[in-house]
Amino acid sequence: MAQNIYNRAQIVDDNFVAFCRDWTTSPNRRIGLDEPVREGAPICGRELIELFESQILTRQLDLISRVLRARDAAFYTIGSAGHEGNVVLGRLTRPTDPFFPHYRSGAFVVERTRYRPEIDPAYDIVLSQVASAEDPISGGRHKVWGSAPLWILPQTSTIASHLPKAVGTAIAIRRALKLGVEPPIPRDSIVICSFGDASVNHSTAVGAINAALRAAYEQLPVPILFVCEDNGIGISVRTPDGWVANAYSSRPGLRYFAADGLDLVEAHRSAREAVDWCRKHARPAFLHLRTVRLMGHAGTDVELEYRSVEDVAAMERLDPLQTSARIVFEAGLLSPDEVLDRYESARRRVAQAAERATTRRRLSSATEIIAPLAPFHPDRVAAAASGCAPTERRLEHWGSSSTLPENLPPRHMAALINMGLQDLFLLYREAVLFGEDVAQKGGVYHVTTGLQKKFGASRIFNTILDEQTILGMAQGFAYLGLLPFPEIQYLAYFHNACDQIRGEACSTQFFSNDQYRNPMVLRIASLAYQKGFGGHFHNDNSIAALRDIPGLVIACPSRGDDAVSMLRTAAALARTDGRVVAYLEPIALYMTKDLYETKDGGWQFAYPTPGEFVPLGQSRIYDEEARDLAILTFGNGVPMSLRAARQIERETGARARVLDLRWLAPLDREAIARHASACGRALVVDEGRESGGVGEAIITAIVEGAGSAIPTRRVVGRDTYIPLGPAANLVLPDEAAIVAAALELVGAKPSR
């Protein structure tokens, strides 16, 4: 029967079987299991056979994924066929060397499981393919390569977005030791990060490699091995011949190694050199691993639509399993029949694993699916948030009892945040703070002034100007036991690196079933009302991208004492439950001192007593006795609304209570509905944009919690970028607009 030319998986399978059956050449020589396979080669016969067996098992796992998909029993068919040469890295690295895998890293994973004989890679990987809740890494949430006991950190990325955090992890090994924090891996560990040839063009990959080289240039240890698995094509787009080597073989500071991943012996030789060099020198290395892509990009990819049959067949003749079989035959280690026995035995093993796996339980409720996304243990968080450094340590740091921050006069927000950070750094010795200009300069708004002098350059330091690097470093630091406080200089700059939070940091707990965490408190100078200074990059009122990230906590204090108390909660959430917290600091309120009148000092507050904190999601209410109107707001909207409320009362006698939400995710939905119901009217003041702003969620909370009969209005920013100069005021909410909307709701007109 003629082969179906579109079923390349079957053709690749048949080709290997035919290759073995047709082999008639006698061995060049018969080597012993403990003898080198080739003269001068650091790989013996026994090791070669084991690597080959891992390749075979990986191939059968690829094949079964296609079979199961045809039965609608499995859901992921991107395989490792043609990339099985990465098996040598699974052998040559340690199970404590963190591995950030490319999605074609099956052979690496299978080989590394030899370090843990209790793990059955065939069964575990098929559990992942069929999305079983018993999948040991993701619990059925995605087909990912990962293993907590083997330090394989699960990745869902196809665009190299895992590179920044791999670099951060490499830098964190020695940084943690310098801070007296023993990392959970050996001191001489290296980080391995693999990706495809198409991914080297992605800005994330380019930036991450640049960050590693910059750090090494500054004499920081960066023990990372970048592994480019080059199969010459990204889905349907060819990589020009020689491009990867041309781009990376002569980069200053990057040691380049080339390996033929189609030949196990040569791949082992080059990979061993790369691994040993990286471990010895603790500097970045680049292993360019030649591979081919077999069976298309995935099971749904009809490769013959964009490649000729001749081209595809030529690639299939380069099948690394055929090359491995040839080496084994020529060395006299196994006969063709013995290889086929192993091949078919692996097929049966995988089929049996699939038969078991397809009967195992799948995720069955939304609650179960979401469980690892955003863990929250209120009692433990409260205990951590109410903690403080020992009195002796605080007195030594602050100088005396009279100069403890809680004994000082009221201050504005920037000063209180600075003090709050100092107390947290006294409490958490593993805390580190970094970003652009945060060290000697103290940040562009001087919020971190003096911290480096007090805590040292190992804990407070500047980074390069690259937000992806900042957030990647935070993730890597967190993996190794540090508590990072990365700073993004302006909210607008966060969008340059949003996927480091959306696709990486906040997805880690979800896709590892809470086995891996990368906690952090992400401080961002945010929002508008800077009197037109700087245009839209410095006046960004859009937080829609943050609100769309599952599991992300969003804090937005409007006053200094809340800023400190919420910062304590944010740190406790990160440290206790592994949460990622975006802590938005309203720039226009940093130095604000007055509320109603010039020099009234109404927006300066005393430093919260150690132990005080704001529970997650809890709002603050002003004038709860008011019954005429509920104003629901946050950030800059709070002082504006308080001033508007006073004006309304003076002019009409109507009283408005003001609810400061404080936490934008999760929202205090119960309080929103309760206060709207109590007043019978609700005014939402949202300094964000009309589309995608928090106001939409607030109104939803009112309707769902209090009913649609409550008259509701919204004062919100326009759907536009913020212009330079006084024109900014024309597109942002102001007090006059708040007063006008409030008067409309209470049915009153201002007195003349």
What can be said about this structure in brief?
The chain is α/β, with parallel strands linked by helices. It is elongated.
Q: Any idea what the radius of gyration is?
A: 30 Å
Number of helices: 27
Main β-sheet, spatial strand arrangement: 9-8-10-11-13-12-17
Distance between the termini: 95 Å
Structural class: alpha/beta
Largest pleated sheet: 7 strands, mixed
* Mean pLDDT across residues: 95
Oligomer: single chain
Q: How many individual β-strands?
A: 19
- Could you list the spans in which at least 5 consecutive residues all have pLDDT below 50? none
The amount of helix comes to 40-55%
The amount of beta strand, in percent, is 5-15%
Shape: elongated
Task: Give the arrangement of secondary structure elements.
Blueprint: H1 8-21, H2 45-70, H3 87-92, E1 99-100, H4 106-112, H5 121-129, H6 163-178, E2 191-196, H7 203-217, E3 224-230, E4 233-234, E5 237-238, H8 243-248, E6 255-260, H9 264-281, E7 285-290, H10 309-316, H11 320-330, H12 336-357, H13 366-370, H14 378-385, H15 391-398, H16 413-427, E8 431-435, H17 451-455, E9 460-462, H18 467-479, E10 483-488, H19 491-494, H20 498-504, H21 508-511, E11 520-526, H22 544-547, E12 553-555, H23 560-577, E13 580-586, E14 620-622, E15 629-633, H24 637-652, E16 656-660, E17 663-665, H25 669-679, E18 682-689, H26 694-706, E19 712-717, H27 735-746
Parallel strand pairs: 1-2, 2-3, 3-7, 6-7, 8-9, 8-10, 10-11, 11-13, 12-13, 15-16, 15-18, 18-19
Antiparallel strand pairs: 4-5, 12-17, 14-16
